[in-house]
Design brief:
2 copies of one chain form a homodimer.
Chain A lengths: L1 E2 L5 E3 L2 H24 L19 H18 L3 H17 L10 H4 L12 H17 L5 H19 L13 H12 L2 H13 L30 E2 H18 L2 H17 L15 E2 L14 H17 L3 H15 L17 E2 L1 H8 L21 H10 L6 E4 L2 E4 L5 E5 L2 E7 L6 E15 L8 E4 L2 E2 L4 E2 L2 E15 L4 E6 L10 E5 L2 E6 H4 L6 E2 L7 E4 L3 E11 L5 E2 L4 E11 L11 E2 L1 E2 L1
Parallel strand pairs in A: 7-10
Antiparallel strand pairs in A: 1-6, 2-8, 3-4, 5-23, 6-7, 8-9, 9-10, 10-14, 11-12, 11-14, 13-14, 15-16, 16-17, 16-24, 17-22, 17-23, 18-20, 19-20, 20-22
Helix pairs in contact in A: 1-2, 1-14, 2-3, 2-5, 2-14, 5-6, 5-7, 6-8, 7-8, 7-9, 8-9, 9-10, 9-11, 10-11, 11-12
Chain lengths: ~600, ~600
């Protein structure tokens, strides 16, 4: 299975075209501004300052650089290029002669370089390597690439040859997937060897970890091939699984393939929110146990959603199953996009599925606060991993659309775009996520496989204007194209209920309302308070509208009781119209209550 | 309104007779054993030891002594008397010549006597004063009473006359209610003055408090007469409100009467579990905000339930309203009794309304644990306030039953007992809490007011064997008795649903099942796991049985879905028989899931 990378694909407009425009014009600049204000860029100069850098600042900058690379790959932007070059210049100038670079350790703890397993050193290195590959691949810059190859060589020397670092594997996976990316880009086998070393050494011995965490937290509880259940810090876990999937593909290792399959099944069958969010607890930002998916105190970190989408993409390169793309789609339009505000400036780190202003306000009234999700997105966090992770993901979304296998081309996501694969030109025009229609035009001689979304209300197809009964195999419509072919698809988008598995105790007796790939939510600014007592019996009569926001108006009831605290009189039902919007758009109109699961 | 104290009332058998037997034979001895093992009794000797006493040890011992006083008032027990006398002797020997006694400060921080407002010094003094009054009142001991009067005199001198302590009011209310009790027992006005001083000075200035808490935590945010909403640490709050109610009665202060009324309305109208538990968060063991009553992470401390019952009792002395006794009854048979195990040895500090073994087990697997209620009762806690609070409450429950106003006698709780009021003898035989029948026999010439329980399925009455239509006024049956009268009552106990107010977001769309005064719960040992997905549509066909446990079998359904995590297929309903038991008996058969609120 050959991927069709983002560089081969032009996103031509539509929903994601607009997201990319916002990303390139607003988000990437605003993040740069906030990162500058907080000292993330100046830290790259590696000079002592009052503003002590955080241990993970380099990774934030690296993801920003990676975003810039993807933007510049598509369209020149002299200002953005200058900002990127300044950062690259600082990194290269600060890099030690041996190849080492870390803006925190060089300045604050030079004596502890490669001594502290928990302190994100190789995690930062991994993100810098990813940025370097992206920059070179995009034709934007070669300096950082050269510098990071030297850094990778140095890591190889210290960890793999001399083995004189104080730890074997990094507390936060990322270096493994970065080295595999570097290997596949460069063809240098030593990077593959080093990645496989880090993967193979993980979980085989006791290594330093936070004293407040167990070995499950950073996935060192078992050798990677024996890991069948997703545990611990969700982003750490998924970055590791991504590397495992890449390694499985590169090395044809059946034990790794099986582990990846088991982990995917465990996550998507037992530990994933309906929004595609994962990692349900703030404590260790972690996976918990099967079916434990609390809504109000959900963690569901934006980075974990991104990582799940990336993991799905990597799994599909092992075998292009529709279910991987269905999960990706769920993540993309819900738990991932919810991480960004409509204006492209604000970000959520945490993505709850229910919000009670009362809980937040009470918590704010305390002298010592407890964990509580934020009511509105903010522009920067102390740990600001999510914002540049979103921008790099949005900018490289072209890579999520197509795949090829011999003469067969797969369309996995309906995102308006065009590409050229082999001798064929393919263009997709899509109404997603608000309309279930798509037009796929092909010029060439190829087999075409068009994914049928899991949410389809039906499938109708016209080929060059003529109605054709689609042949569907394993959730793909199969066609053979020769010449100029226009395929018009309609998957009949309509609102539908989603029920969680009976074991998801947080959602028992409740249902979510979805519309195509979108999970919908209701907010108090549209519906008044006390959303928990709103009952939706049926979706017949529901009305969708595309205005400033997409909205779905649903006939609903509000349970009304007598004013006392307890009563033996059953509640009455007061009819009203519930106004739902896409979950990813919540909290764009001020602080208020929000809910996904209804009675 | 004259109370009829526990000393005037003999509990003659039935449910509470058995509780008192267990209390006197098992609980009080077992608590003594555990308190001895943990150094609580040896600390009274005030000698340096490796086992540093806690700041609140004296209060634990004091409540144990108070329990012993109530037991010995009824029946001689030489062994118990010897244990009590040993403790009393140690306290008296350790008391300083000035009258001061505190086993922690005298030994560990003598330089800080009356310097640290947050460290429970006057709280301990208050409980010792209560114990001393109980011991003298019971005719058991006068030494502690004399000693504690000297201590109270010393507190009066330091806080009220010289005002040379480092604080004005104690961080944990209790001294106020204790001084009022001492005043009413002794008639010494200085104790009333001191109590009123502590009440009047509270909340009028900034005083030392924990830096992790606000002034609401210990109810110093407002002068007491302006406190209309229950806030902060629930036990602190209710101990303060008890003193306010007593002070309101003694001083005929309308502002205090109004404040007590508002606080009662706020608690019982917005902040009380269906079990009568209060204080819904572990963080500060506190009241939170209106209608915030989470079930799984409920705090609902046993001591707070006890304090609410005591507050209701105090309010009824201002005006004998049925609602006070209805709340008391709710507390007694549910959130208070749940604090004790069936064998009388184990205790819950925290009383959740829902328990998920999975959440507990996951939490136990963490290196750094979060707050999570315990699955089973334990015999002693580090902070072991609840066990001796239960024993003193059970032993003095006789004082909850009757009240008198001129020639009228009120029967407020149906607890098998007899008393003599004025020239009349009154005897109650009751089937509570499992049967709604009661027989009230009177010999004398009195007006009789028999409370009609809020849960009544009906009321039927026979007087001397003849069916009589009861005259009900403000939830009391009114009768006039002259001579030998036997009143047979049947309040038609039957299972019924309870619905929480529409704003209680934790319970929306759910219902509890109750039977008379009992809130019922289901456990996984009877019903399998996944109680959240159990639906109860109707109680017709429900079967009650009194075996080892009282049980109610209810036709129910289990929601069943396809095995996937999310599906658009609505769940099917699988019929089964749900077996419910009284909430207070949960967790007596090992660790498992438990639930009160059903779909």
């Amino acid at each position: 299975m050959e991927p069709v990378g983002y560089r081969q694909v032009e996103v031509t407009g539509g929903f994601w075209g607009e997201m990319q425009r916002l990303n390139a014009e607003v988000s990437v600049y605003n993040i740069h501004k906030r990162f500058s204000e907080t000292g993330r860029f100046s830290a790259l100069k590696c000079q002592k300052s009052e503003n002590k850098p955080h241990i993970f600042y380099d990774s934030d900058v690296a993801k920003w650089l990676e975003s810039a690379a993807y933007i510049l790959a598509k369209k020149e932007d002299a200002h953005l290029r200058a900002l990127a070059e300044e950062a690259i210049g600082d990194i290269c100038r600060s890099q030690q002669p041996c190849g080492y670079f870390n803006s925190y350790f060089q300045v604050c703890e030079p004596e502890n370089i490669f001594q502290k397993r928990t302190e994100h050193e190789l995690y930062c290195a991994g993100h810098l390597i990813e940025a370097a590959v992206a920059l070179k691949e995009a034709g934007v810059d070669e300096k950082l690439y050269a510098a990071m190859c030297r850094y990778a060589d140095y890591i190889y020397d210290r960890f793999y040859v001399k083995k004189d670092a104080a730890f074997t594997t990094c507390g936060h996976p990322e270096i493994e997937l970065a080295l595999l990316r570097l290997y596949e880009f460069s063809g240098e086998k030593k990077y593959l060897d080093l990645a496989m070393f880090f993967l193979n050494e993980r979980g085989v011995r006791e290594e330093e970890h936070y004293d407040w965490a167990t070995r499950r937290y950073d996935q060192t509880h078992l050798p990677v091939r024996e890991q069948k259940e997703a545990v611990g810090h969700a982003v750490r876990a998924l970055y590791l699984y991504i590397a495992m999937a890449d390694a499985a593909r590169i090395s044809h290792d059946p034990a790794l393939v099986a582990a990846c399959g088991a982990l995917f099944a465990d996550i998507t069958g037992k530990k994933m929110y309906v929004t595609g969010g994962v990692g349900s607890t703030f404590h260790g930002e972690a996976f918990t146990f099967a079916y434990d998916l609390p809504n109000t105190f959900a963690y569901s970190e934006t980075c974990a959603a991104i990582a799940l989408a990336l993991f799905c993409g990597r799994l599909s390169r092992l075998q292009n199953k529709a279910e991987y793309h269905a999960v990706s789609e769920r993540v993309l339009y819900n738990g991932l996009l919810s991480g960004e505000s409509r204006d492209g400036k604000g970000f959520f780190y945490v993505n709850p599925l229910e919000f009670h202003e009362g809980i937040y306000d009470y918590n704010e009234s305390l002298a010592q606060k407890l964990y509580c999700p934020l009511p509105e997105r903010v522009e920067v966090f102390d740990c600001s991993c999510c914002p540049p992770n979103i921008t790099r993901f949005i900018e490289s979304i072209g890579g999520q659309i197509y795949a090829a296998e011999g003469d067969t081309v797969y369309v996995n996501q309906y995102i308006s775009s065009r590409t050229r694969i082999g001798g064929a030109e393919i263009e997709v025009e899509s109404g997603m996520p608000y309309r279930g229609t798509a037009r796929v035009c092909v010029n060439g001689r190829i087999g075409l496989r068009l994914r049928v979304p899991a949410w389809k209300g039906g499938v109708s197809m016209r080929v060059n204007g003529r109605r054709v009964q689609p042949k569907i195999e394993a959730d793909y419509i199969e066609l053979f194209c020769d010449g100029d072919i226009a395929v018009e698809l309609d998957f009949k988008m309509a609102p539908y209920f989603v029920y969680a598995n009976e074991n998801v105790f947080a959602d028992a007796g409740r249902k979510a309302v979805a519309y195509g790939p979108l999970v919908l939510c209701g907010e108090s600014c549209d519906n008044g308070k006390n959303l928990r007592a709103v009952r939706v019996r049926s979706l017949s009569g529901a009305k969708a509208a595309e205005g400033e926001f997409f909205t779905l108006e649903v006939p609903a009831e509000r349970l009304k009781t007598s004013p006392g605290l307890y009563s033996s009189a059953p509640p009455a039902a007061e009819k009203f119209t519930l106004k739902l919007i896409p979950y990813f758009l919540w909290a764009n109109r001020g602080k208020g209550d929000m809910q996904v699961w209804w009675l």
